Amino acid sequence: MTELWALFLRAAFVENMPLTFFLGLCTFIALSRKTAPALGLGIAMVAVMGVTVPLNHLIYTTLLAPGAWAWAGLDADLSYLKLIAFIGVIAATVQLLEMVLDRFFPAIYASFGVFLPLLTVQCAILAGSLFMVDRDYTLAQSTVFGLGAGFGFAVAVVMLGAIRARLVYADLPQRLRGLGITFILAGMMSLGFSAFAQMVAS
Amino acid sequence: MPASPSLWQVLTAPLIRQNPVTLQILGICSALAVTTSMATALTMSAALTATLVMSAGTISLIRRHIPDSIRLIVQIVIVASLVIVIDQVLQAYLFDISQKLSVFVSLITTNCLVLGRTESFSRHNPPLRSMVDALGNGLGYSLVLTVIGAVREFFGAGALLGWQVLPTIDQGGWYTPLNLMLLAPSAFFLLGGLVWAIRTALPDQSEPLEYLAPDAQGGKE
Lengths: 202, 221
What we know:
B: mainly alpha
């Protein structure tokens, strides 16, 4: 149990997707102008990553991994197909989530707005599944990893959104305004998050 | 859009003026992660440009046959197949570098730059023009990656493309490597600075004020 908790903290803070691996930066930058859309994006990330990483783990181990077809007497290594399989799973999950929310929780669906379909091409989500394969996680570990990574993304994007909402009133050099200062802010947050590295290592 | 610009303009516009990374905010994800040294930055640039040009050509060729409702899925499948091919080629011929790039080659699939260009340009233009546009965007992306990679490797390790330019302390020289340059935050700082520099040179790109300062508002009323 403590191991899983450590993995959650590690995925959320030490290996924060946008700030230490630069993943999902496009949406990270584009949707963090205000806090409210940032929060919506964060919740959607937790939901999608929590579902797709364990699902992809099942698909990879039962269908694609080297030796997965040994029970049928086939010596096949389909792992090179993982990219297409994962993308398909992610696209389908996002679509399904969208339909379920629309049917049963219209209020939540309305607050997500356009962010759900955008998540299909989110690098962080695909990367979650690819890291899961790289590091040989078990099913429980990959669930925790997916939730943790999504949570870390949510925390980072809400924080950046809050800072940028305040920064609107600041008197910045005109050419630095907007994209330029956002990168520098993200850099400072990244410095802060690198302090978390000690937390799990000890 | 102004009445069809010449191919040369389509090629050169994305290099600096319409740069995909600094103006369109596309494809930043991978732009920063692989720039700790110039060699990986160059490999990544080459892989991305190749994917971009080929997917633009393919999608442009079949653009009249893709039903609108499923075009995203079709585009992603085409891009993913091309990326698998490139990944296998890199693993076969440049194994060391492909180990360093690890998952980032696969992540070209979800690079917003590729999908962004196919979605906004290749769908409406003939193959040659789309491929030229893709090449221009690929080169603009490569330019940013190479500049950031060069700065990070030069100050972080005192080297360029693996050649030791500044002799470092632990090799008996005088240069103390700036370790921050090899860590994640420096990439953000450098890119922020680069955006600042480009917007100083091209003032029309800077973003307008959302709110006027209080005294300026008072003056107007």
